[in-house]
Design brief:
Shape: globular
CATH architecture: Up-down Bundle
Largest sheet: none
Strand content: under 5%
Helix content: 55-70%
CATH class: Mainly Alpha
Radius of gyration: 16 Å
CATH topology: Four Helix Bundle (Hemerythrin (Met), subunit A)
Structural class: mainly alpha
Number of helices: 6
Number of domains: 1
Length: 159
């Protein structure tokens, strides 16, 4: 018999994996079957597409990717034992990379994948679930899914 924690943890792992890597063939909760997920979607884009502003005033895919990377880096610092990495977090800075060169985009995608993999590993290994950990992990999935949707809106506007 599974413990509630085990069921929660397995469900969280499934949702995070689906958002970052796309759903497995037999089970899709958030995305359509065959969806590439956030990481492969971003890695398939050129630096030009990631830097484009199809709508005046709106941010770019590169800025969204850097924002998600930054948020995951804070979560990873927290999971590694830092008590409050948010205390001096500079969220505005995470939006200040709207344009990227080819090399900058490749590095940003690599950094985002590393942070995403690390966060998923932290969640899979966690054994002490309290309200903060559970709510934070669920929020990380919702926050990332929101940005995936926003990125797809920018792509749609690019034509």
């Amino acid at each position: 018999m599974h413990h509630d924690r085990d069921i929660f943890q397995q469900a969280l792992e499934s949702i995070l994996r689906e958002i970052f890597d796309g759903p497995p063939a037999n089970e899709a909760f958030l995305l359509n079957p065959g969806d590439p997920g956030l990481l492969r979607q971003l890695e398939s884009l050129s630096a030009e597409a990631a830097s484009a502003r199809p709508m005046p005033g709106n941010t770019t895919i590169a800025a969204h990717a850097d924002h998600v990377r930054y948020g995951l880096s804070l979560l990873n610092r927290w999971s590694a034992g830092e008590p409050n990495p948010w205390a001096d977090a500079d969220w505005d800075a995470s939006w200040r990379r709207p344009q990227v060169s080819k090399d900058e985009w490749r590095l940003l995608c690599e950094d985002l994948r590393r942070e995403a993999d690390s966060w998923q590993s932290h969640m899979a290994a966690r054994s002490d679930w309290d309200h903060l950990a559970a709510a934070g992990s669920l929020a990380s999935a919702a926050h990332t899914a929101y940005h995936l949707g926003a990125i797809r809106q920018i792509l749609a506007a690019q034509g």
